[in-house]
Write a structure and sequence with these properties.
Elements (H helix, E strand, L loop, with lengths): L1 H24 L29 H40 L3 E2 L15 E9 L5 E8 L2 E12 L6 E9 L17 E8 L23 H8 L5 E9 L1
Parallel strand pairs: 1-2, 5-7
Antiparallel strand pairs: 2-4, 2-6, 3-4, 4-5, 6-7
């Protein structure tokens, strides 16, 4: 009887304090707080730091499409110009070569740029000029420019005879290319070259030519400022 009473008291005591312990376990959980609000209840907000609809921003947005339209029109016009220019040069190249007149009007050369021509005379190797350095297939060398002295009172002209390697710089190393007889040169009539900003100045007094200044070279060779790109030469 006494054992049963003790068991009953211990059981009721344990049942009495168990809810208290269970409640105590969850009393500090944040979600049980009546004022708790999760991140879902407070979505992030965007804050604008700059002014709205600034005049500079509107101006930039307006200029971008206008600039793109202008560049597109320029590209179309440039393509049309380039296509016509290539067609014109191709037409001139396929035509039969013209004999150069005794005296050439320098102002009309642009109308015959890339036109095939031929002239007869003797090369003045003593007035030869080298332009360089010039790279060709990864090799260093020079362009050889030789005055062609025409006969019967015709003017002397400049002929670009082509590229030579650096080891052929001196004439004694290429005697087979120094024709002494009268020859007929066939080639392309070209406009004077234009020097770019990065090309150094020529030093003709030292025999240094970095670019073909036709006027300057013609003055040194006592020739007309007429430039021929040689494609073929034949002895007379």
């Amino acid at each position: 009887m006494l054992k049963a009473l003790k068991l009953s008291c211990s059981t009721s005591r344990s049942l009495r304090f168990r809810p208290y312990r269970v409640g105590l376990r969850f009393a500090h959980s944040p979600t049980d707080s009546p004022g708790f609000r999760s991140i879902v209840d407070n979505p992030p907000t965007l804050v604008r730091t700059s002014q709205k609809n600034t005049k500079l921003g509107i101006a930039i947005l307006a200029v971008i499409p206008l600039t793109a339209f202008g560049l597109g029109c320029w590209q179309v016009q440039r393509l049309d110009w380039k296509t016509k220019l290539i067609a014109k040069f191709e037409d001139r190249i396929v035509r039969n070569p013209l004999p150069l007149p005794p005296r050439i009007d320098s102002s009309s050369i642009s109308d015959f740029d890339y036109r095939r021509v031929y002239a007869t005379g003797r090369f003045r190797h003593d007035k030869e000029m080298l332009i360089g350095p010039r790279m060709h297939d990864g090799n260093d060398g020079y362009l050889v420019v030789t005055p062609l002295e025409r006969l019967d009172g015709a003017s002397t002209i400049l002929v670009n005879r082509g590229w030579i390697s650096r080891d052929k710089k001196y004439q004694r190393d290429r005697l087979d290319g120094l024709a002494q007889e009268q020859v007929t040169v066939q080639g392309l009539l070209r406009e004077p070259w234009k020097k770019n900003f990065f090309t150094p100045e020529n030093k003709p007094e030292k025999g240094l030519f970095h670019f073909p200044d036709v006027e300057q070279m013609a003055s040194l060779a006592e020739a007309q400022p007429v430039w021929i790109e040689e494609t073929m030469s034949m002895p007379r």
